[in-house]
Structure formats: structure tokens, C-alpha cells
Design brief:
YefM-like fold; 19% strand; three-stranded mixed β-sheet; alpha+beta; 81 residues
């Protein structure tokens, strides 16, 4: 991830925003990572994925997640436990 200091943020706001529009950037303060700046679309995607307890309605479950459950159910049904 690209890093900018808070001084860079003050002096080169346009460059920092341009970089953040492509991918998240770290803003450092006193040489320590303090903040992440990213495009709002990226933030919303992360936020949507962040809730591991999300409940999906019928037909809403992402294919990859449905396959994961289906494969595990099949595995359990086939095991001699």
C-alpha cells in the first residue's frame, strides 16, 4: 500500500486523492500508520463484506458461499462418522 505522511496530505492533497482513487493509501503521522484513505466505492464493498453474521434471503447467497456450504454438507453426508 502506498504511504503518505500527514504533511504530504496537507501539501499534496491532489496527489494523495489521486492515489486513493486507485487503491487505498496509508496516512502516517509521526512515522506510524494512522489512517487509511480510499475511494468510497471501495469502502462500501469492504463494509458489505465485513458482517460475518449477515443473513441472506432465498436467492441472495453469493455462489462461492453457497458452494462452500453445499460441499461441506455433501462431505458430511458421505462421511462414515
Amino acid at each position: 500500500m502506498q504511504k503518505f505522511s500527514t504533511v504530504d496530505l496537507d501539501q499534496r492533497l491532489g496527489d494523495v486523492k489521486a492515489a486513493a482513487s486507485r487503491k487505498p493509501v496509508v496516512i502516517t503521522e509521526h512515522r506510524k500508520d494512522r489512517y487509511v484513505l480510499m475511494h468510497v466505492d471501495t469502502f462500501n464493498e469492504l463494509k458489505a463484506k465485513a458482517n460475518p453474521r449477515r443473513v441472506y434471503g432465498r436467492g441472495e447467497t453469493p455462489r462461492a458461499l453457497a458452494k462452500l456450504f453445499s460441499d461441506e454438507i455433501d462431505r458430511k453426508l458421505k462421511s462414515p462418522d
